[in-house]
Amino acid sequence: MKKYSMEFSVGLFVLVGLLCLGYMTVKLGKMELFSEKGHTFSARFSSISGLRVGASVEISGVPVGKVSSIALKTDCYEALVGLQIDDEVVITDDAIASVKTSGIIGDKYVSISIGAGNPVENGGEITETESAVDLEALISKYVFGGVE
User: Fold this and answer.
1) pLDDT, tens digit, for every residue of 13-45?
2) Do 106 and 72 share a domain, yes or no?
3) Would the CA dihedral through 52, 83, 64, 24 be positive or negative?
4) Domain range spanning residue 110?
5) Does 21 share its domain with 44?
6) Backbone phi, then psi, for 10, in 5-degree steps?
7) Does residue 19 share a domain with residue 50?
8) Residue 146 falls within a domain, yes or no?
9) How many other CB atoms are found less than 10 A from the CB of residue 84?
10) Which residue stretches of the chain have pLDDT < 70?
11) What is the phi/psi pair of residue 130, to 5°?
12) Domain for residue 54, yes or no?
């Protein structure tokens, strides 16, 4: 009887350890097993170079959501970016969405500057956008004498 009690204890310990490992993998990997609630918006950009699905959406430097989808609008050849924003955040019709870089060679994220206009409904579009700055093109112009 003592042998089965010891095996049960070890098995329970291993099971709890695996559950903890799975939980930490999901949390540290920033994966979502269940979709989080929030408002969805879209924004059109002429260039989103380096932006990825899952990138952060920030207002005043505070993360308030994530990039949920990226698609190409073939009628105008612009990037259509889907944004999932937390429920408590209100996006106005004069908000400006910009693709920014964290640091010199860091990850891309979407920064939203909120205005004082009317709220945009869930599923609406942010019309004012600023595309990503292409650092390679700027450095190339500087190195090869294109900058005056």
Assistant:
1) 999 999 999 888 877 776 665 556 788 999 999
2) yes
3) negative
4) 39-140
5) no
6) -65, -45
7) no
8) no
9) 18
10) 1-3, 30-36, 146-148
11) -130, 125
12) yes
Residue 145 lies inside a defined structural domain of this protein: no
Please state the pTM of the whole predicted model.
0.70
Q: E strand or H helix at 101, and its extent?
A: strand 96-101
Domain co-membership, 44 together with 27:
no
User: Residue 39 in 3-state DSSP?
Assistant: strand
Identity at 68, one-letter amino acid code: S
CA distances for 59 relative to 1, 64, 115, angstroms: 61, 7, 11
Task: Give the strands of the sheet with 62-73, arranged side by side.
Answer: 125-126, 39-45, 78-85, 62-73, 56-59, 108-113, 96-101, 128-130
Contacts of 99 by beta carbon, 8 Å cutoff, 6+ apart: 45, 47, 48, 49, 51, 108, 109, 110, 111, 130, 131, 132
Q: Tell me how many domains the chain contains.
A: 2
The closest of 68, 57, 67 to 111, measured between CA atoms, is: 57
Claim to verify: residue 116 and residue 55 sit in the same structural domain: yes
Q: Is residue 148 part of a domain?
A: no
Tell me 131's DSSP state.
P
